[in-house]
# Entry
Amino acid sequence: MFVDRVQIELHAGKGGDGCSSMRREKYIPRGGPDGGNGGHGASLILEARLGVNSLAAFANRKFIRAGNGRQGQGAMCHGRKAEDQTLYVPPGTLVIDAEQGFVIKDLKHHGDSFVVARGGKGGKGNAHFKSSTNQAPREFQRGEEGEVRSVILELRSIADVGLIGKPNAGKSTLLSRITSARPEIADYPFTTKHPNLGIVELDEARSFVLADIPGLIEGASDGLGLGHEFLKHIERAGLLVHLVEPEPSDQSDPLDNYRAIRSELSQYDQALADRDEILVVTKSEMPQAAEVAERLREETDRPVLLISAMTGAGLNEFTEAVMTRVQQRRKAQLEAGEDVPVLRESQLATEKRKVPPHLRGATAQLSNEHQAKDFDTVVDTSDEDAP
# Structure
C-alpha cells in the first residue's frame, strides 16, 4: 500500500519523579537524604532512510507514545532513562506542524534526522537539595511531561527524472521496459494511482532514478481529480520527460494535450514549468507519430524524440539523452556547492571491513602446502647494538 500523507500525534515520554528518602541503617543514626533522581523520558526522532518507500507504517496509527523514565529510589538509586525511539520515513518527507501549517523540517537526504518531540527531564530527588543549612530536605521534583506534537508527514518523491503526460500516454509501459519496476498497465485511463520509481542502469557507472507520475488532466493545478496529489511528486525531479501520445483514445489533439499539461504546470508552480524538459512522442509505430513529432518540433523549436515501448525503437537513444542531461545537472549542482541527493542504497559509502590477523601480514601466505618452515625468516638486528 502506497501512503504519501498522514497526520499523527506524537507523545514524548514523561520524566520519572525524584525520590524523597532518608538513609536508615544500624549504627548510622544521621544517615541523611538519599533519594535518587528520576530518569529522563524518551524522545521521538524522525529519520530519513533509503529503502523506506512510503508512509504506510503510520497509516493506521493516530498516536505514537515514547517510553517514560523510571522513578528514582532510595540509597541514591537513580531511575533508568527511557531509550529514544527513532521513526523511519522515506527521503523527501516534509514534516509539517498540523496546527500552524508551517514546515518544521524537510528530510530530503538519507540520514537526515531531528528530534520532533523531546522527552521530559527526570525530577530531582531530595538528596539534590541538601546543603549546610538544609541537611534533611524532604522536597523533591516531579518529572517533566514530554512534548506532545501533532504533525503531518507528506512524502514528495525524490527522483532524477519525472515522467509526465496525459493518462494513457505510455508512462508505465516505458518504465516497465527500461527498469525492473512492474507498475500496473492497462488500456484505460488512470491505471497508475500513485508514483512508481524505477532505476535505469546504462552500465556499471551510469544510472538514474525515474519516477512514473500518474496522468495529469486539465484542471489538475486547481485540485481537479487528484491533481495536487500527483503534482507534488514531481517538484523534486530535476528533469521532466513529457510524453505525448500521437493518437489519443479520446480523439483529442496531441498538441492541445501538450499545451494543457504545460499550462497546469505553470499554474501550479512556475519554477516547475521552467524546469529542464525532454519532449518525447510515444507509440512511434502508429502512423501519425512522425507527423505529431514534426508539429511539436515546429511549435516548441526543440528536439523531439520518437520512441516505442512496445517495439523498443528509440529506447537506447532516449536513455542516453536523459543520462546526459542528468549528468550535466549533477555536475552543475556540485560546482554550485549543492548536495546531490543519494537515491540508491548502493551509492552509500560502506565502511571497509577489517582484515582478520590471520589473513594479513606474513601469516596470510600460510596454508597446508606452505608451512612456516618453508619461508626464509629474516630477523632485523639493526637496533640490537643501539645504546
Notes: The mean pLDDT is 79. The chain has six helices and 14 strands. The helical segments are 171-178, 227-231, 254-268, 270-273, 289-300, 315-335. The longest strand covers residues 148-155.
